[in-house]
Specification:
endonuclease activity, Las1, Cell morphogenesis protein Las1
């Protein structure tokens, strides 16, 4: 007997129309129809059976359209982004309830969802709403994920041209071929590559990743699978300084083209370190190498400019969820680095305070500031009125 599937749309062409409104082509020059698409999905919800991916796309898009500081308060904008993002993540992770008991992080990895989304959802749910910068980037990444994992897979009808889909196997194969091409050869040729061909290697990787949104997410995994970052024959305790020196220039160039690579790279490293029970042993050389790479990119000065893109909260959460010798060591290093960073402004603040203990040294500065402000229409208040708002004076 044929299986009957009920949908909120009359036929698939309606779904494709909504998709083109949410994700217009690069050549489209007509009016912005995203609000119409959101209204259509809202009408579909009254009929029921709307897939979570469709609803989440509408919620995230509506949050983006709500992002207008001239008509909405910053608080309401952050709240709208947070609500849409939390519903998107929770609806995906909670839908996968079959099988063995798993943490939300493990379920996210199973679904191919960036695990940092789970940490951001936790922050938005149980703490203060994240900043607008973080929420905007997360919403954009979420819409890209929804395109790759739902909308791009919808079959076209009639004479509508087929949408080019991301072929994961093809991307992995191409990236692997590029890495093998530049990684094989004699030691002399390797030294020559470091002198002359770093830019060419990075350019080819960037070009392949730019051709598909999936490429940037797959590159960290391919780098590890091809054993270019970690020698498959590496022994426990062996230094990775040579590998750092060898690959930092290339990885930095890729990160320069897209800072999100740094986030994907850190996530891939910690996921392999935490979620693979086969490498939990303190004597496992591969786990030690993963730990060393994470410690390197999170503390080395050469990666300092991209440190804001390091998913520190997520890494710490994973280390707490999946405790092992190496995750505990990594957590301690990150906590130590965090305390050292927080201690720096305190020291400088004390120094600043000591310099201002002398009224003679502070007076010229204050007078100079007052003079500059007066030139722009600002003047010091001679008498402060401490009455609460709404209380008028009675003469």
């Amino acid at each position: 007997m044929a299986k009957v599937i009920f949908t909120a749309w009359k036929d698939q062409s309606q779904l494709l129309d909504v998709r083109s409104e949410f994700y217009p082509s690069a050549s489209y020059e007509g009016p912005d129809l995203r609000s119409h698409a959101c209204a259509t999905v809202e009408a579909w919800k009254l009929r029921g059976n709307v897939p979570h991916h469709v609803e989440a796309t509408a919620l995230l898009t509506d949050a983006i359209l709500h992002d207008d500081a001239q008509h909405n308060s910053i608080f309401s904008i952050r709240a709208t982004y947070s609500a849409a993002f939390c519903r998107f993540v929770t609806g995906l992770v909670d839908s996968k309830v079959q099988g063995p008991r798993k943490t939300m992080f493990q379920r996210a990895v199973d679904l191919g969802l960036p695990a940092s989304f789970v940490e951001l959802r936790h922050e938005a749910t149980h703490r203060e709403p994240p900043s607008l910068v973080v929420l905007r980037k997360a919403s954009q990444r979420s819409l890209e994920w929804l395109w790759d994992n739902y909308w791009a897979g919808i079959e076209e009808l009639g004479d509508v041209p087929m949408i080019e889909r991301n072929d994961t196997a093809s991307i992995r194969s191409t990236l692997g071929d590029i890495l093998r091409k530049f990684s094989t050869g004699s030691e002399q040729s390797q030294k020559k590559r470091k002198r002359d061909e770093d830019d060419e290697l990075a350019t080819q990787l960037i070009s392949r990743c730019a051709a598909s949104d999936e490429g940037l997410k797959l590159l960290p995994a391919v780098l590890l699978e091809e054993s270019v970052l970690i020698d498959s024959e590496r022994q426990l305790g062996e230094s990775l300084n040579k590998a750092f020196k060898h690959w930092d220039p290339v990885l930095l160039k890729v990160t320069e083209s897209s800072s999100f690579f740094f986030t994907h790279f850190a996530e891939e490293l910690v996921n392999r370190l935490a979620f693979d029970p086969a490498i939990e042993s303190p004597q496992n050389a591969y786990a030690e190498a993963l730990y060393s790479w994470l410690n390197h990119i999170s503390t080395s000065s050469i990666w300092g400019i991209y440190r804001p893109f390091f998913p520190r909260s997520y890494v710490l959460s994973v280390c707490e969820q999946c405790s092992s010798h190496w995750t505990q060591a990594l957590s301690k290093e990150l906590e130590k680095k965090g305390k050292a960073t927080k201690a720096t402004p305190i020291t400088s603040g004390n120094s600043f305070k000591s310099k201002r203990t002398s009224s003679k040294s502070s007076m010229p500065v204050e007078a100079n500031i007052t003079s500059k402000l007066s030139g722009h229409g600002w003047e010091p208040l001679q008498k402060w009125d401490s009455r609460p708002f709404g209380i008028s004076s009675i003469n």
